[in-house]
Amino acid sequence: MSTDESSATKKSMKVLYNCDVCPGYCCTYTEIGISKHDIGRIAKRFKIDVDVAIERYCKTDGKRLLLKHKRDKIYKTACRFLDTKSRKCKIYEDRPKVCRAYPEEKRCGYYDFLMWERERQNDPECIP
Ligand code: SF4
Ligand code: SF4
Description:
By secondary structure, the chain is an alpha+beta fold. It has helices spanning about 10, 35-45, 50-55, 95-100, 110-120, and strands at about 60, 65, 70, 75-80.
């Protein structure tokens, strides 16, 4: 979800993962929460009303707004803002706060798993 900047905590620590070699696993979580403030920023980006942006980009679990998904050939579904070819976020500068903060610590569990599996299979591009 994020590569460099983000939370204050992250700013002060050197992270031990590299999103550039990952197909964006965290962007496939089914419940990616989005705040009204986040959706306002995205609406502004696309020059549309907030209500239109909510209708277009969000779903709800009854309590919260969540990002809608679309089909993805690697993980079946992914956030609708994930570019499924480049595996990058199409709204990176305006992505939700939760995406900026993730994974909120030095390590990313999926990245560690990905690297372990690639080494084990001797295939730098395999996706487990
Ligand atoms: S799963 Fe981890 S390594 Fe992959 S894009 Fe997300 S934060 Fe980056
Ligand atoms: S908004 Fe961007 S960073 Fe956040 S889940 Fe979607 S594609 Fe990933």
